[in-house]
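Notebook, p. 212. Picked up where the previous page left off. The plan for this session was modest: take the two constructs that came back from the sequencing core last week, fold each one, and keep the raw output in the notebook itself so nobody has to go hunting through shared drives later. Recording the first one now, exactly as returned: residue sequence, then the structure token string.
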Amino acid sequence: MRILKTLAPKWAFGAFAAILRLFPDWFKARHAAAVTPVLMGWLVGDAEVNDGGEGVTYEDGEKAPTSAWAALDPNGERAPAGYKQGVLLKRCRVLEETGCAAVCANVCKHPTQKFFTEDIGLAMTMTPNYETYECQFTYGAKPKEVGEDEAFKTPCFRQCTASTTMKEAQCGNCLDPDEAPESGT
């Protein structure tokens, strides 16, 4: 994240966060989800917008409008929390290239969630699927503490270079190579 932060002046992220505070949570989350596949595809892989799923709540407990136009109409169509606030990363390049659950959790997931939640002011969670190499981004959902997050309790993959270098006794339980998804797809 340090590299990302050097791409803009120090005040830029604070200013951006201040502007975001002007909008309702559903609006920020839905727009972040809409631009993620466009802006991040080159880095992490193909992605598509979906409904956010678990963990998305609104402070007022209300359902969100289905569009900005519906927000202007008190009787406009409403959707449940999380509507179009998720992004499914179809096959994460970070996880696929490293083959390491620890790199996923410690180098990608945790810093990205922290950056969005603390620096940008938009709660965001990432839920990796270590079997399919998919990753579900959910904007508007507060991330769990590291000790409560299953992503940090996942055993290492057998093809992980850290596992090979450190040996299983130091790296933790390793998945059998037949159980890990194939890379290079």
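Okay, moving on. Second construct, recorded in the same format:
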Amino acid sequence: MGIRKNFCTHDSLAMIYHDVGDRHPNNQQLRAMVTVDLKKTYDTVPHEAVVSSMYEEGLEEKQLDFFCSFLAGRRYLVKLGDGPDARSSTTKEKKHWNPSRSSGVANII
């Protein structure tokens, strides 16, 4: 679907939900939709500022590590259908979050 003028992510997801999710109730085909785009969501804000703000709000280290794993160095695999049409990708950089390095940056957001 991509980026469309005057449409936000919510609008795009609503259109996908309508096309995929709102099918006739007698249709027994399996349907699934997974959306994860954390890196692009925060690509205009310093990642350490986002994570530092989450830390200040009280998220635990395990939760922060999980979130950070999507910002850099995350490998994922998407497979559609039953055929060999799987795709994979890796983000370009790998950074580790360190709360002592990030303190004081939370007020940027």
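Notes on construct two before I forget. The radius of gyration is 18 Å.
Flagging for discussion at group meeting.
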